Predict the 3D structure of the following.
Amino acid sequence: MSSIFTKIITGEIPCYKVAEDDNYFAFLDINPNAKGHTLVIPKKEVNKVFDLDEDTYIGLMHFARKVAIALEKAVPCKRVGVSVIGLEVPHVHVHLIPLNSMKDIDFKHKVSLKPAEFEAIATAIANHLD
Ligand code: 5GP
């Protein structure tokens, strides 16, 4: 069965898309730790990040870096934090989280955003991509 994230890539499940190329996809986390919390995934469905083949792993980090640079321009923050967990969704994803304090990297701390806010953030990040 396809993962939730594969269904997001194929459009079966909606998302607030930030970026896409042939191999990678970035979209806003639906339950963000902080405004701008973004997930970056390989289109290839693999459970654990260090099980990715080396080229896909390096490509994922390269793509995540581009998104993180755009994210930091779009969402005011001290820096963008990176985390890979995967205990909830068994499809590799890199969390990019705009950080202003330690609570922003705490996955028990969540912020509530309206659909229009998600839309505006996704558009702002996309507009800052090179
Ligand atoms: P992890 O697997 O790293 O523990 O966390 C999975 C993350 O994916 C969570 O931050 C959660 O909010 C996010 N997530 C789970 N389901 C969906 C979904 O259907 N859409 C989006 N945009 N994010 C999701």
